[in-house]
Design a protein that fits this description.
heterodimer, A: alpha+beta, disordered N terminus, B: 1023 residues, alpha/beta, 5 domains, six-stranded parallel beta sheet, 40% helix, 18% strand
């Protein structure tokens, strides 16, 4: 494990190709660091679980790393925050293309998001390692020290849990961003002509039909007559890998957890089918 | 009858199912205006009553707790809560009522609900709500079986986070089910969720979709938690990091709080939300929809339009232009309001992009409305992406000719007609017919198909429609052309009966019958009332119009050699129609050999009487009694020149060999429910006799029960009538009985019904076409005989008494004659009555022929959900009958007699008239119940024994038949043949006026009878 190449392949069990693009970009950024020796030590640190916690607090990343002293060192990372004016440019650009809003609303980080940021002349992702501000409470004067670098390594994965933390680090939470986008949209839509027939009526609310108060006389849905298992289309299979960053000390944890879920799914499915089969016939 | 209800308690710390029950009774209305606190529900069961009743019904769940609940219920303005099934009053208010309930926390509720029946109806003490609950739980089981869930982090109202299993309802079928169950949710389910603070406040439920989604989440979660999962143990858990370990344990333990610091909770919550997000959107009343439109003339580019579609009704759509125009306001989809429509559309398109990449190209502007697709992209959308899109909760609308299903596949359009020369056509006969190939709604020739196939493009245009060709299409078409098969009438019946039928593997899209064939088909499928046949020559009586149609129908099926089941409602005259049919055969000189009619012993007498009356020209014998023919020779001798031979089910079985050696022209079974149990000897004997191994033996079944609704009984009936229709019993069980009876599978039921429909004719008194043919009040004589015990007792009594009367001094004679007559009438009812027995022993019904017949009639009307009044002049008989009937049908039968108190009488009358689930049978003594009561809910009146004066009987009859009665009233009068009852009946009929004069209203005149007159009156006549 002396080359950078080796180090990066350790991160994802399935290889880099399976990682979301923003993780790849992040790893590339780290691998551009010149001091490979220090990087390797940082990697071992990260892998051995010395990074005790990583938290996104507001616009900063707060982490605790267990060093040689008994008290863990406190590490802070931050990116340059965009000014309101910059954000205005970004939002303007984002609102011009429906796809960006679509993807952001559906929880997907658009691959070409940087093009929206280019409008402000800024970037979402740090272009160079130097753009990442960092601080560590360790006595090492070098920056990034191995504690900071260890946190770097784990950050990529943490982005997969919620890709919108990047926006947060740049000064807008996902909620703020979506709200601002909705505002922008309103302005665009106001210029649209109202289409006849799409008028807004007052809803008849809380209307209770006394006739239907007790009544239900539908037959059982034919598809529920026989209860069968799914072939390859369980929710677990559809949702795929759990976007939760791996804890270095528990390298297998996520796999075990998902395996438990699958096993649980099978057991419960079997039990449900048995129970369904045992249902009493009409008296 | 007590009815069980189930409400959902969502406000309690642990969501619960609350069981409560109500039972109709006379209750004092509550002055609503003066209420300060919610009143006690006057009709609800108290805590001990509820537990006891549930115990009795074997429905008491384990581990319940008692709780007093406050329910918002529809209330009459006079201050009484409304009950399920009651007619709605004009003025209705919602008021809170307090009831005792048993509450089941979610895990127990799920187990309990799983055991409930999945089909409603029947004599059920479970309310409709419980049927809804059982369907809901069935769905939850299906979600679990299909793994439609993801674990999540749930934050409750007090901000505590916990692990929770949440349903994934993104698939099309589950979304539709959610809408279905939400729109059909009985509002009563939420009657317990009133806000707690305002004591008199009522909650009117709204947003059923969200409420339902929450109930599903709770039920699902409770069933996915396990305490004993094999992997959930000490050794494995340490391999999980603290975050996952905490989550896993919170997903399984019943105390589910996540033991994590707040930051980690949030991190877990957002990661899991992100996990779920790309698979399933949020709960909303509408979803994004993509509508594919075919290329414009001269273009090869397809159009894909964006829009929103209502979840509840996918046909309600608005284009994206309208969505953008709605701006930040609401969008109207029919009567559905959609908030934030733009965000909803954008989010949906975001998920759609994952399933169908080319979509991205169409989203480059700020407010896109549509895009163009290349042919290859359109094909991908049609063939594969549509399913994926629907799975992520995005609607797709395809052009009709491509919208999948059988309709867009290559199939046949058929034209057929009966051959012009055919008159006495039979089922196997070939028709004149022609066919064309058809795909996506347009005709296509084999040549054209070849040409299109040669284009090697999956989507092709033909006669203006865009079609999807599949690889096997051309081959199948060529095969069919080469084969060019014949088409029989049998095929035509099948093809015209059901949609989705196929011929030689090609689906039949169109079936066009020529006028002559059409007439046959319509009559066969009973889309058209059968052509009536007038009463045949030699029939002495009148047929009502619907009876003429019934006769026509019997003759129609006879012509096709198909067995027929006439299942008309009681009182419509099945006997007469059958007799008219036999007379019709005789008049047409088609009746050449004897017909065997099998009936329960109790109605044989009735048959004989009716046959003598209506068809005197039919030669009839009874194969019954000890003197019946015992050898083949004797039987064949006795059948010489005979048209109709009557026998009982018991003898059908006992004399099976003898009877099966006769060359019957036809077999008729009356009260055909007698053969419902296919395994019984009786049923086997009947079916053996009907096997059409011998040429031209017709089969007819008569029954008054709704046979078509009794799936398990249909097989034996059809095996008797037309064995080919439902096939072997094992096949029938697998294909129909199990899916329908156990799970209420409607698709199977529909298929079954369409198969048997041609052979069953059932008309109800309430049918529009019937009701005008019937008088308001229909009187029916029920002729019955005597059981051997009755007969012995009757003769013995007559012999002994006549002697005594002859010797008696004049002053006592009167009294003795009266005593004799009374005793004879009692014997006609039941020996137990004459012998002054006080309890109902085993085999009680078998001792009286009258009681047997009564039971058969009651069975039929109870089945139909009708109500009846039963009058008797003997209070003792009333008591015996009451306990017998209560035992027999396990339901309450009130008895109003001279000894009932005024309050008790009123209570009985009120319950019978007003209780939505009140008793169906009401016994009354002729004297106590004959006057002054209003019992219009009954549509049947039974006079179990005869009174001397018809006026008294009529008065009693009028209890049911009065102003306010909307139904026809059927009056059944029991007459024991050969006995005193028949003599009385004759006297009343022949000298109605005279009798009224002589007889007055009492029995005094009887004492003045001459001895010979008396003997003639009481002696048992053998008929």
């Amino acid at each position: 494990m002396t080359s950078g190449n080796n180090i990066t392949t350790q991160l994802g069990k399935d290889g880099l190709g399976e990682q979301p693009w923003w993780v790849l970009e992040w790893m590339e950024l780290i691998n551009s660091y010149r001091y490979k020796k220090r990087l390797e030590r940082a990697w071992i640190y990260a892998r051995e679980g010395n990074v005790i916690s990583i938290r996104f607090e507001g616009r900063r990343v707060q982490a605790e790393v267990q060093g040689t002293e008994s008290e863990p060192y406190k590490v802070q990372l931050w990116l340059d925050v965009l000014t309101d004016e910059d954000w205005e440019f970004v939002l303007e650009a984002l609102s011009q293309k429906a796809r960006w809003a679509c993807q952001l609303l559906a929880g997907i980080m658009p691959q070409d998001i940087e093009r929206a940021f280019a409008a402000s002349g800024r970037r979402l992702f740090p272009f160079k390692l130097e753009e990442i501000g960092s601080e560590c409470s360790c006595p090492d004067k070098a920056n990034p020290c191995k504690h900071i670098s260890a946190v770097y390594y784990l950050m990529g994965d943490r982005f997969t849990e919620d890709p919108f933390v990047l926006f947060q680090l740049r000064g807008r939470s996902r909620k703020q961003l979506l709200q601002a986008l909705a505002e922008k949209r309103k302005i665009i839509l106001q210029n649209k002509q109202e289409i006849p027939g799409a008028s807004i009526n007052q809803a008849i609310e809380n209307y209770v039909d006394a006739e239907k108060w007790w009544q239900y006389n539908s037959p059982l849905d034919p598809d529920l007559v026989v209860i069968t298992p799914a072939l390859d289309s369980s929710g677990l299979a559809e949702a795929g890998d759990l976007p939760l960053a791996e804890e270095p000390l528990y390298p297998q944890a996520k796999q075990i957890f998902l395996e438990h879920l699958r096993e649980h799914s099978n057991q419960k499915a079997q039990a449900a089918m048995l129970l369904a089969m045992a249902t009493n016939a009409t008296p | 009858m007590t009815l069980l209800h189930a409400a959902w308690l969502q406000n309690s710390a642990l969501p619960c199912l609350a069981l409560w029950a109500d039972n109709w009774q006379v209750a004092t209305p509550i002055e609503l205006d003066r209420l300060e606190a919610p009143p006690l529900h006057p009709l609800a069961l108290s805590e001990p009553e509820l537990s006891n009743w549930l115990q009795q019904q074997k429905l008491l769940p384990a581990g319940t707790q008692h709780l007093e609940l406050q329910l918002s219920l529809p209330t009459r303005s006079n201050g009484l809560p409304l009950m399920a099934g009651e007619l709605l009053p004009k003025q209705l208010e919602w008021w809170p009522w307090r009831v005792s309930a048993l509450v089941l926390p979610a895990p127990l509720a799920a187990t309990w609900l799983s055991k409930l029946p999945l089909t409603g109806g029947g004599n059920n003490c479970l309310s409709d709500e419980l049927l809804w609950w059982s369907h809901l739980q069935r769905w939850v089981l299906s979600l679990i079986a299909r793994g439609r869930w993801l674990p999540a982090v749930h934050t409750n109202r007090s901000g505590l986070a916990s692990g929770r299993w949440e349903p994934l309802l993104n698939h099309e079928s589950d979304r539709r089910r959610l809408e279905d169950l939400a729109s059909r949710m009985p509002a009563a389910i939420h009657c317990a969720n009133a806000p707690e603070i305002a004591e008199l406040a009522c909650m009117r439920p709204s947003a059923p979709r969200l409420q339902l989604a929450e109930i599903i989440a709770v039920l699902l979660d409770s069933q996915l938690r396990s305490d004993q999962a094999t992997y959930f143990n000490e050794i494995e858990t340490p391999k999980l990091d603290p975050l996952l370990a905490a989550w896993q344990s919170s997903l399984h333990c019943s105390a589910a709080d996540l033991e994590l610091v707040e930051g980690d909770c949030q991190r877990l919550a957002s990661a899991t939300a992100h996990w779920r997000e790309t698979v399933a959107g949020r709960m909303a009343p509408a979803r994004a929809v993509l509508e594919l439109q075919v290329p414009a003339e001269g273009s090869e580019l397809w159009q894909l339009h964006f829009g929103l579609q209502a979840e509840a009704n996918p046909s309600l759509r608005q284009p994206a232009a309208a969505v953008w125009a709605a701006g930040a306001g609401k969008l109207q989809l029919g009567d559905i309001n959609v908030a934030d429509p733009a965000e909803l559309l954008l989010e949906g398109l975001g998920r759609a992009l994952v399933a169908f990449e080319p979509l991205g190209r169409g989203l480059e502007t700020a407010t896109p409305e549509q895009m163009q697709l290349a042919p290859a992209e359109a094909f991908v959308l049609v063939r594969t992406a549509t399913a994926r899109l629907r799975d992520v909760g995005v609607g797709v609308v395809l052009p009709a000719s491509l919208s999948g299903g059988l309709a867009s596949r290559l199939g046949l359009a058929i034209k057929a007609e009966l051959p012009s020369g055919a008159t006495g056509f039979s089922l196997g006969e070939d028709l004149e017919w022609s066919w064309e190939l058809m795909i996506g709604g347009v005709m296509i020739s084999l040549k054209e198909l070849e040409r299109l196939q040669a284009k090697r493009s999956p989507l092709v245009q033909h006669k203006g429609a865009w079609l999807e060709l599949r690889p096997g299409d051309l081959r199948n078409a060529e095969k069919f052309c080469a084969l060019n098969p014949p088409l029989s009438l049998d095929d035509a019946l099948r093809l015209s009966a059901n949609e989705g039928e196929s011929l030689q593997r090609l689906p039949v899209h169109q079936f066009q019958a020529g006028p002559r064939l059409q007439a046959v088909l319509e009559q066969y499928h009973q889309q058209k009332a059968p052509d009536p046949l007038p009463a045949p020559e030699g029939f002495s009586g009148q047929l009502r119009p619907y009876q003429e149609r019934g006769l026509g129908w019997l003759a129609f099926l006879h012509r096709f050699n198909q067995g027929a089941c006439l299942a008309d409602d009681m009182g419509l005259g099945k006997t007469i129609q059958l007799l008219a049919f036999l007379q019709h055969l005789k008049a047409e000189k088609e009746l050449r050999r004897p017909v065997l009619l099998v009936a329960p012993t109790s109605v044989l007498t009735n048959w004989k009487r009716e046959a003598n009356k209506f068809t005197p020209k039919l030669n009839l014998i009874e194969h019954y009694g000890p003197k019946r023919a015992a050898t083949d020779a004797a039987l064949s001798k006795s059948l010489k020149g005979i048209d109709l031979c009557l026998t009982s089910y018991a003898l059908l079985q006992r004399d099976s060999n003898l009877l099966s050696n006769v060359d019957w022209q036809g077999v008729v079974i009356d009260e055909a429910q007698a053969i419902k149990n296919a395994a019984s000897k009786q049923s086997q004997a009947a079916r053996l006799l009907a096997k059409p191994s011998r040429q031209g033996r017709f089969r007819i079944a008569l029954t008054g029960t709704p046979v078509e609704n009794r799936v398990s009984e249909l097989w034996a009936l059809m095996d008797y009538l037309n064995p080919r229709v439902l096939g072997e019993e094992d096949f029938f069980k697998q294909r129909y009985k199990l899916p329908i009876e156990r799970y209420g599978d409607t698709a199977s039921l529909k298929d079954l019904k369409s198969r048997v429909k041609p052979f069953i004719l059932r008309r109800l008194k309430t049918d529009k076409s019937i009701i005008t043919d019937l008088p308001e009040k229909l009187e029916l004589n029920e002729w019955v005989s005597l059981s051997p015990e009755q007969r012995r007792l009757y003769t013995k009594t007559v012999d002994a008494s006549l002697e005594a009367i002859q010797r008696a001094p004049l002053g006592k004679k009167n009294g003795q004659v009266l005593a004799l007559l009374t005793r004879l009438k009692q014997i006609c009812n039941h020996p137990a009555l004459a012998l002054k027995e006080e309890t109902v022993g085993e085999g009680f019904a078998s001792r009286s022929a009258k009681l047997q017949r009564l039971e058969e009639l009651l069975e039929e009307l109870l089945e139909a959900g009708d109500r009846a009044l039963l009058f008797t002049q003997f209070a003792e008989w009333g008591h015996l009958l009451q306990s017998h009937l209560q035992q027999r049908w396990q339901q309450e039968v009130p008895f109003l007699h001279g000894g009932s108190s005024k309050n008790a009488r009123q209570a009985m009358v009120d319950r019978f008239q007003l209780d939505p689930r009140g008793p169906q049978l009401f016994l009354l003594s002729l004297k106590a119940g004959g006057v002054g009561l209003n019992l219009t809910r009954a549509s049947h009146v039974f006079h179990i024994d005869r009174w001397w004066n018809p006026a008294v009987e009529n008065q009693a009859t009028d209890r049911a038949y009065r102003i306010g009665q909307q139904k026809k009233v059927l009056v059944h009068k029991f007459i024991t043949t050969g006995s005193i009852e028949e003599k009385i009946d004759q006297m009343i009929k022949e000298k109605a006026k005279l009798a009224a004069d002589i007889v007055g209203s009492g029995e005094e005149w009887l004492g003045g009878l001459e001895f010979t007159q008396l003997r003639n009156l009481v002696a048992l006549e053998e008929n």
